[in-house]
Fold each of these.
Amino acid sequence: MRILHVTSHLDVGGVARHVVSLARAGVARGHQVAIASSAGALAAEAAAGGVALWDAPLRTSAEFSPQVFTATRRLAARLRREPVDLLHAHTRVGQVAAARLARRLDLPYVVTWHGFFRPNLGRRLWPCTGDLTIAISEPVREHLVRDFGVPASRVRLIPHGLDPTSFETPPEPAAQMAFRTQCGVPSGAPVVGTVARLVRSKGVDQLIRAFTRVRAAVPAAHLLIVGDGDARAGLEAIARAEGQADAVHFAGTLPGTALALSVMDLFVFLPAEQEGFGLALLEAMASGRPIVSVRRGGGAAWVLDRDGIGPLVEPADVGALAQRLTEWLRDPAAAQAAGRRAHDVVTRRYTFTQMADAVDSVYRELAGTRVS
């Protein structure tokens, strides 16, 4: 089958990593796969997996930007030379481009909704929900049916997945020690950590303020923040203002999270309001980390509540977050038991193979006799 994924860019992030992983899995399954995007840091990883890269100027958040129409014209010309069996759109601008291409070239297309979106005028007039729509969590599925009027018969629930084996074997102690040293985390210090884009919507500032209370109860604790973004300078200023500059460590963006997760005693998941699931949550679960999450976005609560994996605290409740973290730092046996439960849930429900099988089924259902 010939498949073209359409997305904004391939910069490091949850959606881009999902697209690259899914595209590479498609190649491994014998499909011819390409990604149309504005490229980015993950482009080399995609190419190394045999995925063709099609340049399309989609690096914009404006769904009706001239860039989207330029990308559509460019992709239409290439698709006439190199036809595909179906389109798979990710991100809003990817949906708009795919909808135009599907209509112009009579192609089937599927859309993955990676989160929650306001039903604004543009989305009402041009929903671009595809011939079939993939929702990455039950709350997202309900959102599509309730707020966008997508017929339930056209929605397929396919949660994200990953390969847990890549997180199950702890890195060598020497590598862990070198990473601690690089980040400034003392040997043996208990570590509270998170992996998140450093943007306002994630609430990393609240975690830093909660950590001040944690450290008052557990003075040896340190906070490790993996990720980068526009809010980093402001967050560093908050850590200084809280008197925690010596104990709050910013690791920046990393090529992988397994090493960082391996040194964390507790993981804090900070979903954005529009986040429908969160790959960082699955990675922490696969690593067997005890997890405390903020109840925001819907996806994390759906994953954690249904299996009793870990506590959730309400947004902006700094005191409750600090209390939960302190309790588990003081009771490592209970925390480790929760981490084992989280790992077991990943291996049963959220493997990459399960996800890729389900997406392949959607492709077959959608393409039908068009498959060649």
Amino acid sequence: MVDVWLPYGKTEVCVRIPTRNFLGSIEPVEKSGVPDARAEIERALEEPIHSEALSSIVKQEHKVAIVVDDATRPAPSDLMVPPILEELIMAGVREENIRVVFGCGTHRAVTREEALRLLGEEVLNRVKVTSHDCKAQDLVYIGKTKKHGTKVHLNRVFAEADIKILTGDICFHYYAGYGGGRKSVLPAVSGEETIRHNHVMLLHPKAKTGVLEGNPVHEDMVEAAKLAKVDFVVNVVVNGKGEIVKAFAGDLEKVFYEGTKLVDEMCRVQVNRKADIVVVSPGGHPADLNLFQAYKGVDNTLEVVKRGGVVILVAECPEGYGNQVFYDWMVKFKDLKAVERSIKRNFVLGGHKAYYLMKALRKVQIILVSSMPDFYAVNVFKLKTARAVNDALNEAFSIAGKKAKVWAMPNGNATLPEFKREED
């Protein structure tokens, strides 16, 4: 037997896989975090990529907007924003002319407690902060993207700033290809209709994890960010512990593409064989807070599991399914075509997760090991369930056969396995 430990909430569970069945663990190449995160941000600011230094771009009289991620993202804004503020103030910009904008996209506003955690008390005491509202009446129209015809409406504070700065983390994203860079404009500070028009393109076959070339969601986001005339970007890549591995600053596109190279180096893993069964954990808390978040781990297994195979999702889900639209669409729609039609007609964030889950269930059976009530898991989300991971593995062997081959993925949300040899 081979014992594989999988993150589950804030603890771990052990799956015991017979040696003859075990293909191995698919895991990211873990890189160490830098010893001094603040110093790394400052280094990036001093060595901007394809750009003048921020202090050379700004003038004393300029109004500056800095976009940061909201509470749904793990970006270390509290580490990125203070060095940016220091550079702006050293260049003569007045604190009252600097605004930090939480890029909420379609999410709710950031609470005072969340703002304190995201930025720290010192930043909140120095500059004004505001949460973007995608339904605001005073959004500013800046033009239409040429290739995909998206009308770009932006947050007024951001749109009217003389200097526009983006911050964030670069990581995999399951339909934009990667998070970071241009995503801090669209969807982060864009209007609801702008976001909807862009996100409908997630139905495109190239709109998937780790793909940029030919990905219309990504292309549209880049064009929107160019229309917005972004002046400077600070992005980071973090490891599995949330530590900064490297910081990048400077030009919008150059920073983003440098960051994606590092993400690929760490998280893109080649495998030469597909399994009958994949046991996956999204990576534990907070990635498995609910099924809505935990599903990403399943999505990343689909390239390395055979059609008709089994995915065992080990995810605590203490908050249950996590998104009402996800639930409603799973109840309302009985087949994938109906979901596709609804996305095209009236895209609602949350409904897209129903699309991805239904699509996955056409290829594999999914056994969920969680604390979520069976009623929801089985009746609404069409999953099989098991009380413990080893019970789930026994069930998977009864479906796929006693000789079934098994991959384990302990950090599914941060791992993109790629199958490189035709087999079946």
Amino acid sequence: MSDRVELTLEPLGRSIALAPGTPLRSVLHEYGVEFPCGGRGRCRGCRVRQIGGSMPIGPEDADLLTPAELEAGWRLACRASVDRDLTLDVGQWRTVILADHSEFDFEPREGLGVVVDLGTTTLVAQLLDLRSARVLAVRTAVNPQTVHGSDVMSRIQLSVQGGEHRALVEELRRGVGRMLTKLMATARLEEPRLETVVLTGNTVMHHLFCGIDLEPLAGAPFETPALGERRFRARELGWQLPGDPVVIFLPCLGGFVGSDILCGILATKMHESATLFLLCDLGTNGEIVLGNRERMICVSTAAGPAFEGGRISMGMRATTGAIHEVTAGEGGLHCRVLGDVEPRGLCGSGLVDAVAAGLELGWIEPSGRLELGRSLPLAPPVELSQGDIRQLQLAKAAIATGLQVLRARFALAEDASLPTYLAGAFGNYVSRTSARRIGLLTGPEEAIHPAGNTALLGAKIALFSSEADAGFAELRRRIEHLPLAADPEFEDAYVGALAFPVNVA
């Protein structure tokens, strides 16, 4: 046997020389392939298709993939190794990561700055000229920790129970450092003078990057004392960046309310607004803040990964081949697929649409029960299972209950209309009509607005802000964090929110 074999990834056109027996899991996460269950062979989320060479069918493949899928070459990447030359189709993992090019007020100064949105799944960085706030370069990457699972709880478990905390910290710092090195190279500046790097993210990413113990977040009441801003020099992190800039991870607001929500408040100017409004970042963890310049309250809800295609039988991210839009018409369902290719799976916005359409057609009951049997065909071979509907019910109930508790704290009537801003990729692409139909959001459609990547925009505002020197202490004192796990109203309200609305005006 040769001492090297070649793995070719299409349509990326990348060829990688590997030692025989190299697990695919150790290679493919760098190219966007996700492992939602952490590589345990319990889901279908990492499936790839062989188009050259061969991969034997393993027991997990046979359990989780249909005979037709196996015949077409689909395999679970987490259970496969490269023993001979192999060509894989990974086109389903090409994706567009939400960046930001909004204008904002700033005080110019000399030098360059970088902002990083450190997401659970993806990373995006922008290099700015501090004299003009002009974006000079953008770089995106997959969070290297997606190989361990698609949600933060899998990483908490690996850190606390698996004893891998130090390894996770180093893995994340290396991944961000590599991205920033490529970002600076992309800009091709003759004499770069990098002054500051500002990072933002959820509380788990904050703790992992900063090397803070995750034990307090592993169980109730899910509160951590280490929420504050952390500062480093680039060389402390092992980064070789020009000027050895200061690296600042912005402070968090609560147990599972991160600095990304602090940045969202800055981006939407909630802290300056006379009008009361909602800011919602809907992902694996739903982070919500309601308020204005007089008062702000934030909560987090464990929505699970359904909004990002996780734990869905044919779920996937919003990438090529994903059904992202489903409408009801002429007694049937009509699906749109990203990239106008054959459907491969269902992303979060498509899931919400599919259930909303099923409710409209009477194929799904308000209880969530499928009238048509065990599954609802969408576009072959993609179908919606009874379990998928249940996962969406759990996710939407968590968000709806968080919103209900916040409204109660402000003594708002149930029918009181509030401007609602949706942050992040899912919030920007989900249909407002469908979100209201399943009971995820309430109020008139015209009051619901996509807000873009508020984490990245807020990080840029923080980059120029003098308040960053004090860790935004004054602003943080004005924001109340409400732990829903300790709220006596939450559990009853959550159970009541599981059902879908009978109809929506």
Amino acid sequence: MPYSSGWRFAVVNNNEEQPIDLSSIAIVGGLFLAYALVSGRLEGTVLTAPMIFVAFGFLAGSGGLGIAKIDVGHSAIHVIAELTLILVLFTDAARIDLDRVRRDHNLPVRMLLIGLPLAIAAGTFVALALFPAFSLWEAALLAALLAPTDAALGQAVVSAKAVPLRIRQSINIESGLNDGIALPAVLLFAALAGAAHSTNEAGDWLRFGLLQVTLGPLVGAVIGYAGARLLDTAAERAWATTAFQGIGILSISVLAYVLAEMVGGNGFISAFVGGLVFGNCLRHPCTYLFEFMESEGQLFMLITFLVFGASLLPEGLAHVDVEFVVYAVLSLTAIRMIPIALSLLGSGIRLPTHLFVGWFGPRGLASILFVLLILEEAEIPHRAEILSITVITVALSVVLHGVTAAPLANAYGRLAAQMGECEEGKPVSDMPLREGMTTNNNPEP
């Protein structure tokens, strides 16, 4: 059957599944407490939150001491992963003001509309060259899985005031939208890669695909618009508290997902489109959205990195090969940097900026969640190899982008200060980061 995300709350069989070990929950809770106590001291250092949680997960999980038993196939883990992806797609889209993007953020528009497709094409070509056994669609799936970026892995870059606001916001906006834009490609390539092993007729695949990409966005748009109107009305009449407005956002994102799945659309695409419509139709300041992203959203994301380190990373390393590492390094460098540089030709920005923006396209949350929720459901001949390459790429990105974020942001900031009047320093409007912080050090034009 073609891939469908499915809502797993309805299919959990408690008689066949072992409960999550209580000692593992205690260990995870202790880690969150320990990190909370020192989080302020770690800000601005090379030790980022994703790096710490991946490392701890690996050491505590099956790849290390084995004291925390976290099964990536457990239904509870999948529920958390689905909720995280729904929230990330919805809130990332909701925080991006499309009118401001259209008005004065041409750099991320170029990166998304030109750079992203070129990066997927380049990744496909390199995968076919390095892995001859892969089909075209498997190579394209691998490239699409690694196309989305995660600015949170280089937090020091998007929050460093030394870096021109226009450049920080370009990285921030690209990261906020490219996971939702890449998602249809991931779903399409996963379906096509598994089609050869399916008994469905071609007409079934076509009908399924059309429903996924039409009903999903349609349901998302309707729910996003209705949710924005309802929350605006409640806020105007002082019916809803700020805290419950945040809970309302969670409800709207889940409704967009579930209703799309119920009518045959894709719930994840629905969540992304719903967030885009919601954020751009809401009239009141969306402070509760940013507060939610800073607390509950952060919790879900760090749990995902912990699960990645405990379960996915050992599985990925078990199948590691030299060609896998070569592809991972190329994915973080040439496959990303050359398409981004091509997309920015004629924009007026200088070579150091091309290199800086090209390098800071970390692979993180979206790639992990796509692997957890999409790759594991698809019947693909080289699933283990694609998973291993994706895991190695994300692991390298967590370390390399985390370590280089602060020093390169400072170095580039000093260089930018010497550029004088230039395209990089052009004033632009500000938008919040995924963590809810604003980066504004210039007045909005």
